[in-house]
Amino acid sequence: MPEQVDQIINKIVGTDGEVVETSKNVERLSDQQFYCDAKNQTNLNDFIDTERPKLVALVGFVGVGKSTFMGSLYQQLIMNLNYIGYAFVDSDTYVGFERRVFLRRVNDANTSGTKRNILGENDILHIKLKSNKGPKHQILVSDKAGETYQKYLSSDEDVAGDLVLENADLVIFFIDGDADSSGLAKHNLIMDNYSSMLTRLKEQKKIDETSNYIIVYTKIDKVTTDERKEKLATRKIEIKALFEEKIGVAAEQIYEVNSTDVDDKTLNEVFALLLAPIVPTVAPKEVDWVKMEIENVI
Most buried in the list 54, 55, 105, 191, measured by CB within 10 Å? Predict the structure, then answer.
């Protein structure tokens, strides 16, 4: 396992530890398949057994902390034999998880130096759990690069190709609390970007009034002054209203988390929501969970 992780790291990280984001690196990642690496949406139906897995989509722009969030979740699962009522049984994407953990740097100031995912790399992470109160179940989590969602602001073609969002059981939208509580210009940019993306997602039926979604504010540990806390409280109201207007239904909940702190109470509440199984259903005779069109993409 360490050797496989090192191979991946060498593909995307320079000798100085910085991510080398070039088209050549993206090509390497798309051309090579590493054992137990993250999957892509063309592999989703491979996980159907007697019951289909729960599909969770993490949505957010560059630098909001999605991969740090997933790294902390993985740490909780492997460090605890029984985590919030679940035992971590297996994963088909250990390398995908390990790379996120490897790149998740937390310094003495408790700030993350996670290197972000690269545009075009596989994004589906797999978790198999055993509940204390029930049978085993599977969770699939989509952790796309922030640049992917940046492209959604101007590309209908990219939005149309997203089969994860239109089939997700839970969508988690991420917002950088540090940025949103600072200057008004940053808040307005967050509002504009989400307004544009949500409009496109709604128009192409990737989200609608039946969508189950929450909003997670990250980096909340950096919002320390009373002034910034007051700004964030006001701006959260605007964000909530924007999402409700664009999607057609209000968020089930808005959370504030510190994803670098695995003991953060609210962070673990979000993890519990993510890991909870969906109502069991019998797998269809034909592969139609993520649409039959998926077979034509391969």
Answer: 55
**Residue with the two structure tokens 């593909």:** 11
What confidence tens digit (pLDDT) does each residue in 230-251 have?
999 999 999 999 999 999 999 9
First to last CA, the chain: 27
Cβ atoms within 10 Å of 98's Cβ, excluding its own: 22
**Domain interval for residue 203:** 2-15+50-280
In a domain, 241, yes or no: yes
CATH of the domain at 72: 3.40.50.300
pTM value is: 0.81
Q: Is residue 220 part of a domain?
A: yes
Q: Are 164 and 122 in contact (CB under 8 A)?
A: no
Per the structure, the count of domains in the chain is 1
Rounded Cα distance between 41 and 124, Å, is 7
Split at pLDDT 50, 70, 90, the class of 120 is low
